[in-house]
Design a protein that fits this description.
The protein is α/β, with parallel strands linked by helices. It has 8 helices and 9 strands. It has a single domain (3-253), classed as UDP-N-acetylmuramoyl-L-alanine:D-glutamate ligase (3-Layer(aba) Sandwich). The protein has a 6-stranded mixed sheet.
């Protein structure tokens, strides 16, 4: 089925920070959502000053302004799925948590953004436990990379296949419902394998060839927003994750080009995603 031929246009709300460089945050989320046939709404949690070399500054949006953005959209629009990214502080986390309850929100993907690749804290360290307590039980999927898993668990995992079930169980003990442990930081030089794990189930391996590129800014945003929009179309979480992983892989193979435009087949049945 060609998604672009489907008259149904799903809506996805991205709740994240703004990246003026355009490669991460609400900017890249909106590009992904629109590219995959959805309509993107956004709530901005923080303004940043960043470029290709890293984050130079961060200013959290006041939580009452975040609440106003959420209420204004959710009182007017039916949202099919949600992607949550950078949260900045406890107050914003609490605001989003209350909105999830008040509006009975579903199909939520939480990208556990903690620290930028350049070393800037994107969530106040004192707010990490607050995110765990307030959001982990309320979202369908969290998508940490290996360093984020280690920060959350106080561990030192390397991302080897033999460690995945331990890592997932540790995240389940924190309240997560399903986890996608991203393998971009693993030691495998040829294959990038992510592991989707549901409570009580064996890990599902989702692999693509590793792409030799330095253009990895915003990959977590791309993956999580792609999962959200595909989930909003009615696909299962498993299928949404597989299809999003392939979408990200194809973007990375074209990362030397600034044009964010391609059409590829993505799942095992070779159905086009766009």
């Amino acid at each position: 089925m060609n998604i672009m031929q489907n008259r149904f246009t799903p809506t996805t709300l991205t709740i994240a920070g703004s990246d003026p460089y355009g490669g991460a945050g609400v900017e890249i989320d909106a590009k992904v959502i629109q590219k995959l046939g959805g309509y993107a709404f956004s709530v901005t949690t923080a303004l940043t000053a960043q470029n290709s070399t890293g984050v130079k500054g961060l200013f959290a949006i006041p939580s009452d302004v975040v609440k106003m953005q959420l209420d204004t959209l959710l009182q007017d629009i039916k949202i099919d799925s949600f992607k949550i990214g950078m949260l900045a502080n406890k107050e914003i986390i609490s605001t989003i948590s209350k909105a999830i309850e008040e509006y009975n929100l579903k199909n939520i993907i939480l990208d556990t953004v903690l620290v930028s690749s350049s070393g800037t804290n994107l969530l106040e360290p004192s707010a990490i436990q607050h995110m765990v307590d307030e959001l982990f039980p309320k979202v369908e999927l969290i998508t940490p990379n290996i360093p984020e898993v280690n920060m959350l668990l106080g561990s030192s995992y390397s991302g080897d296949r033999s460690e995945i079930e331990q890592m997932a169980n540790g995240l389940f003990e924190l309240g997560a419902n399903s986890v996608l442990i991203k393998g971009g930081h693993s030691k495998d030089k040829d294959i990038a394998t992510d592991y989707l794990v549901h409570k009580g189930c064996k890990p599902i391996e989702i692999s693509t060839p590793r792409v030799d590129t330095t253009h990895t800014h915003g990959t977590g945003c791309i993956l999580s927003s792609a999962i959200a929009i595909i989930l909003g179309r009615g696909k299962s979480l498993d299928d949404s994750t597989r299809m999003a992983k392939y979408f990200l892989y194809k973007k990375l193979t074209m990362s030397e080009d600034i044009i964010f435009d391609y059409c590829e087949e993505v799942n095992d049945r070779r159905e086009p995603i766009i």
